[in-house]
Amino acid sequence: MVKVLVTDKIDEEGIRRLREVAEVDVAVGLKPPELIERVKDYEVLVVRSATKVTREVIEAGKKLRIIGRAGAGVDNIDVEAAKARGIKVLNTPEAPTEAVAELVMGLMLSWARRLPQADLSMKQGKWLKAELMGTELRGKTLGIIGTGKIGQRVGFLALAFGMKIVAQDCVRYPEFAARTGCEYTDLDTVLRQADYLTIHLPLTAETRHLIGKRELSLMKPTAVLINTSRGEIVDETALVEALTSGKIAGACLDVFSREPPVDSPLLKLPNVILTPHIGASTHEAQKEAAILISEKIKEAIA
């Protein structure tokens, strides 16, 4: 029977389904040397984001045929090393769609209605009704960079709030544009028009620091940047400069170039809302990811 090693916590339903076709061992929290030693006995490795599947791990896994990630990106897996060995890499980009899209809307609403400040001031015994004047999402322009599953879902939710949508993507989706009124255009135009800019791209050599000093300089001084994809897509040094100089009004960040962002100057800025990479952290999304990756692995085994 095929042997499967699961090294990050995934929903039990995913484990149950894998056990229908394989012998499954769960070993969460292995240190790199422990993983390198352990992986040699398994044909399948299942991870989320904590486990780093490096070239060394892949080379040690002499029997490995499948690496599955219960989540969207695969930047914690050395895909090139896996490809060189003929190892199939599977992931579940569809699983966190609703969770991430809803977080984006939550961040926009939190910024527009100043919810973090309202909550904190109330708990400090203050009543700052007049000082916490907000704005509405209705009538604002949402710029979407990347209109895959998550980007499109954000667009549909934003449409319900009466927002105008502009987008940039190397692939254009006519049905999405027709249903939302989204205008596809170039990156610079999106940057200039957006009141809120949300990023939904994988981290690649091409997307690393896609949003840097030049791009931030094109945005409105009232604009807000939202990043729930990968931290390194935004040049954080340039972002801090833009936030402190008033080139843009603010940022809402769920991801960072270093996680956790220890000693990052972003932690001290008043015009940012920060969350600890919780985009896919809903019970529904995690269960969906576990089920999807187990079914994809079962199909690959078959």
Automatic annotation (TrEMBL):
<dbReference type="Pfam" id="PF02826">
    <property type="entry name" value="2-Hacid_dh_C"/>
</dbReference>
<comment type="similarity">
    <text>Belongs to the D-isomer specific 2-hydroxyacid dehydrogenase family.</text>
</comment>
<dbReference type="InterPro" id="IPR006140">
    <property type="entry name" value="D-isomer_DH_NAD-bd"/>
</dbReference>
<dbReference type="InterPro" id="IPR050857">
    <property type="entry name" value="D-2-hydroxyacid_DH"/>
</dbReference>
<feature type="domain" description="D-isomer specific 2-hydroxyacid dehydrogenase NAD-binding">
    <location>
        <begin position="105"/>
        <end position="279"/>
    </location>
</feature>
<keyword id="KW-0520">NAD</keyword>
<dbReference type="InterPro" id="IPR006139">
    <property type="entry name" value="D-isomer_2_OHA_DH_cat_dom"/>
</dbReference>
<dbReference type="InterPro" id="IPR036291">
    <property type="entry name" value="NAD(P)-bd_dom_sf"/>
</dbReference>
<dbReference type="GO" id="GO:0051287">
    <property type="term" value="F:NAD binding"/>
</dbReference>
<feature type="domain" description="D-isomer specific 2-hydroxyacid dehydrogenase catalytic">
    <location>
        <begin position="4"/>
        <end position="301"/>
    </location>
</feature>
<dbReference type="Pfam" id="PF00389">
    <property type="entry name" value="2-Hacid_dh"/>
</dbReference>
<protein>
    <submittedName>
        <fullName>3-phosphoglycerate dehydrogenase</fullName>
    </submittedName>
</protein>
<keyword id="KW-0560">Oxidoreductase</keyword>
<dbReference type="InterPro" id="IPR029753">
    <property type="entry name" value="D-isomer_DH_CS"/>
</dbReference>
<dbReference type="GO" id="GO:0016616">
    <property type="term" value="F:oxidoreductase activity, acting on the CH-OH group of donors, NAD or NADP as acceptor"/>
</dbReference>
